[in-house]
Amino acid sequence: MTSGTTARAPASIANLGPGFDVFGLAVNAFYDEVTLKKTKGGITIISDGSVPSSPRDNTAGIVVSNMKRRFKIGGGIEIAIRKRVPPGFGMGSSAASAAAAAVAFDRLFRLGLDPAELVEFAGTGEKASAGAIHYDNVAAAVLGGFAMVRTDPLDVIMIEPPADLRMCIAIPKIDIPKKKTRVSRGLLPKQVRFSDHIVNLSNASAMVAGFEEKDSDLIGSAIQDVIVEPARMRMIPGFSKIKDNALKAGAAGVTICGAGPSVVAFSKKSADLEKISTAMAKGFASAKTKCMTVVCKPTKGAGIRNKAKAMP
Amino acid sequence: MTSGTTARAPASIANLGPGFDVFGLAVNAFYDEVTLKKTKGGITIISDGSVPSSPRDNTAGIVVSNMKRRFKIGGGIEIAIRKRVPPGFGMGSSAASAAAAAVAFDRLFRLGLDPAELVEFAGTGEKASAGAIHYDNVAAAVLGGFAMVRTDPLDVIMIEPPADLRMCIAIPKIDIPKKKTRVSRGLLPKQVRFSDHIVNLSNASAMVAGFEEKDSDLIGSAIQDVIVEPARMRMIPGFSKIKDNALKAGAAGVTICGAGPSVVAFSKKSADLEKISTAMAKGFASAKTKCMTVVCKPTKGAGIRNKAKAMP
Q1: What is the pTM of this model?
Q2: How much is the pLDDT for A177?
Q3: Closest CA to B95 of B43, B137, B136, B55
Q4: Interface of B with A in 128-157 (CB under 8 A)
């Protein structure tokens, strides 16, 4: 038995204000690690118990099963998951495990897949948590940086974010409903006013220009969303206060982190990031909700760890 | 009496597929020229008769009146308009006159306005034709290149287009209804399906990346619009055929030019642009409609002509 192949993949923020279902941003807040080992039979999962242990329900397990089938690879695989991205808080937790699994599998069997193929396989793992395939988080987790996704056919554009971009994320200590992503998608409107469509479209376009031109102020000012945020903010205790507080403390823009309930403030390295984080925590506190805060920046995508480490 | 100050401004393509009300692109297909002269009293208009002669109804006249009032400039002004952008065909004809008027006025009275102010004044002229202020065409006509507009507050981002980008425009020989822009806006849906919103948003985002990364293929492939084009295409005889023909002839993307009825195909310098143009003309012919075709490329914005020329 070998010591296995370990890949790690970052947390990611999807939706990103007006970029719903299209934008994703890899951040260095947390990383999941997945170690794959060849075994004699079946797919088995080792984890700390925070994720499903059945390969059919587990994000990494689904990715490994799909890749095994597609490339007609026999034998068994043991999947050890070191879960560090908190599941259910809008930080691309399942995408991180899926991306790490795809990258580790690719390396273990020396498939030499290109990034687009890795994104596609990682995307199959999203089904486990989201009930449908969305590539925004997995694209960011696989490729790193800022990813833009067009589906049908799948096409991913990756842009290197500005070096001075910083995010303050406030993660509330609340119970996450089961199938949260499905629940929060249920809050989305079926129809959008044409004028709102134009507002979000112009802001999303400005965000893309901001990432391309390495202009963190433009990114922050453009992260305004008049469609999804109004529909989902009631899921987040104290959202308006959190947002106001962060903006008053100097954040350039604030929005729901993924499908929530975390909230993310966009800012620059030169801002008082601790002040912004504290202001956001006070916003949650105003709704009698505790939270933890993380300051993070964009990061690169999933990669192989040079040395496989022992799993917990 | 001086010989006057002459500015010229280019035609422009607004809407640009998924970029409705947000994107504008200045093109070298046609230019309007406006010459302003100080006179003893009132605002008078000299033209070839294709545009209204009353300053209150004329795009350039409105711009000049508004600038005169804002900067408290007394005396009269003679506005001579050399109209070359065909009015009513979706090529930013009124915006070209408005942009040229604003730039000429700025120079004549040595105001030293910045580009954003020029866009704002030129935008007031759009009211004459569109019934409301839209900045997509005027931003392109003033600034040149690819312009993205966010309104409320007005913010314009200009991106230099790829050098190899080419457009084939087919301009049908049909009668244009009065208040065409208002009519074509009336065809727009009040509500947009959420899924369609996402499709157009992802395509618009990809277009911005295409302009930023000077990738004409990406621009062309992303210019797909599932909202405005389906609503407006019935205004254009033979649209589906024109589009199919152009794509088969090698165009990367095809969409309605502005509010129509012209049709624009996006392509690269290396493509067979004559073949694409002919294919589009055959599309119009299939609906018993004649057209003229123009091959053009992005151009810079409104500027002062070095030497004032005699008006026709």
Answers
A1: 0.92
A2: 77
A3: B137
A4: 148-151, 155, 157
